[in-house]
Specification:
The strands form five sheets. A four-stranded antiparallel β-sheet has the order 3-4-5-6, with no helix packed on it. A four-stranded antiparallel β-sheet has the order 7-8-9-10, with no helix packed on it. A four-stranded antiparallel β-sheet has the order 11-12-13-14, with no helix packed on it. With 203 residues, the chain is mainly beta. Helix content is 2%, strand content 48%.
Length: 203
């Protein structure tokens, strides 16, 4: 995990704090809100690391196929994961036990984000036949709710606003989309240029 340390002359140098080893490709990483843990997704498993010592804490067998996305809930004890096995799951990181398994989809879950207030999970579901922005209660209750009807296309990384009332994401046409939860309205607020899959995935 690299960090930047400031030199006396104001220059920046790379310093490796630790090398976190995995058996398979790492497809997603996320810090816990309290800063004490780092979760890494490798293969179908999630590894947890202590950020003070960078020691390995535990491995969670989260899915049957590769884990593609993951986010902590605000309490730093629960982790939401999305996988190529087409499920969204919530696990307790202190025990490694699965708390909730949300509805199965037809394709892998590539993007997930948790609202700032910790009440909602947003992800793209292909249940309608196309990737549409969908939300589900973070406690696993109720049914998922489809928010958009954009039709054919691919959408990328999801971000909740600090007040948990808006969601922003970018699509394959490089359009930056803002969804207002209260107004139930989708607005294109800008459009990028010359961004390809890598840049769009890191938006």
């Amino acid at each position: 995990v690299p960090s930047r340390a400031e030199e006396p002359k104001g220059e920046f140098v790379d310093k490796c704090l630790a090398r976190l080893t995995h058996k398979e490709e790492v497809l997603a990483v996320t810090f816990s809100p309290d800063g004490t843990q780092l979760a890494t997704a490798s293969g179908s498993k999630v590894r947890l690391w202590d950020t003070e010592s960078w020691r390995f804490v535990r491995e969670i067998a989260a899915h049957e196929k590769r884990v593609l996305s993951l986010r902590f809930l605000p309490d730093s004890r629960r982790l939401v994961t999305g996988s190529l096995d087409a499920t969204v799951r919530i696990v307790d990181v202190t025990t490694g036990k699965q708390l909730h398994r949300l509805a199965r989809h037809d394709a892998g879950v590539y993007a997930i984000d948790v609202s700032t207030d910790g009440k909602w999970i947003a992800y793209f579901s292909d249940r309608s036949g196309e990737y549409e922005l969908t939300v589900r209660a973070a406690d696993g209750s109720g049914e998922e709710r489809k928010l958009t009807s954009m039709g054919p296309g691919y959408r990328y990384t999801i971000h909740w606003s600090p007040d948990s009332k808006k969601v922003v994401f970018i699509d394959q046409a490089m359009k930056i989309n803002l969804y207002d939860i209260d107004e139930k309205k989708l607005t294109v607020i800008d459009q990028a240029r010359y961004m390809f899959h890598g840049g769009l995935s890191g938006f």
